[in-house]
Amino acid sequence: MSESYDFLFKFLVIGSAGTGKSCILHQFIENKFKQDSNHTIGVEFGSKVVNVGGKSVKLQIWDTAGQERFRSVTRSYYRGAAGALLVYDITSRETYNALTNWLTDARTLASPNIVIILVGNKKDLEAEREVTFLEASRFAQENELMFLETSALTGENIEETFLKCARNILTKIESGELDPERMGSGIQYGDSSLRRLQQREQQRQKKGICDC
Ligand SMILES: Nc1nc2c(ncn2[C@@H]2O[C@H](COP(=O)(O)OP(=O)(O)OP(=O)(O)O)[C@@H](O)[C@H]2O)c(=O)[nH]1
């Protein structure tokens, strides 16, 4: 069955190994916690259509391996991504310290305009927390990132993370800051949008004929 949607956005999920990227994607798509998550080899893929501000948006999501040995493979998937979830584990300072490198990769390899949301995962493990909410919020602010803490285990803020990122991209399209027709924007018009654009163009042409 063909799906109808207004836009398609390409998303990446990046961050160090073991931060919970695959579990976040699984929770978002299947609405349940992936019990037996193994390290991702290369990349995995998922997609879901969501409603954002009255528009239907298909999210095409690439979940990348965090392990260094897959870095050359995963980097080749960055190109033309419209949005990214940059994930660290709130119980691991090491994964937080690695954020700057991941961020540089995303902005140089995907696009300087990529919309990124910083995600502090494993919020359910409060007793083991090594990174405070405040310091991560400051990092987000300094680097122009949105920010949420999530739990792929309980599902807290998982859907909101994807929606927040998609909403931000949509706002930028509407304000003209992002152009879906630019090569490598990571955005495509879906059937519904194309039909609407065609109708608008036909009306514009009709008006042009009447005007002269
Ligand atoms: N308590 C808790 N554990 C989590 C959460 N998310 C993931 N985990 C656990 O963290 C481990 C790593 O999760 P993955 O989703 O495989 O991590 P990943 O970031 O995809 O790892 P790579 O594929 O190696 O990059 C697993 O043992 C998960 O069960 C969470 O929100 N809370």
Automatic annotation (TrEMBL):
Superkingdom of the source species: Eukaryota
**Which keywords belong to this entry?**
Endosome, GTP-binding, Hydrolase, Lipoprotein, Magnesium, Membrane, Metal-binding, Methylation, Nucleotide-binding, Prenylation, Protein transport, Transport
**What cofactor does this protein call for?**
Mg(2+)
Q: Which reaction does it catalyse?
A: GTP + H2O = GDP + phosphate + H(+)
Q: Which Gene3D superfamilies match?
A: P-loop containing nucleotide triphosphate hydrolases
Q: Which Pfam families match?
A: Ras (PF00071)
Q: Where in the cell is it found?
A: Early endosome; Endosome membrane
GO terms for biological process, alphabetical: protein transport; Rab protein signal transduction
- Alphabetical list of PROSITE patterns matching this protein: RAB (PS51419), RAS (PS51421), RHO (PS51420)
- Would I find Magnesium among this entry's keywords? yes
Tell me which family the UniProt entry assigns to this protein. Answer: Belongs to the small GTPase superfamily. Rab family.
Q: What is this protein called?
A: small monomeric GTPase
- Chief localization: other
> Which InterPro entries does UniProt cross-reference here?
P-loop_NTPase, Rab4, Rab_GTPases_membrane_traffic, Small_GTP-bd, Small_GTPase
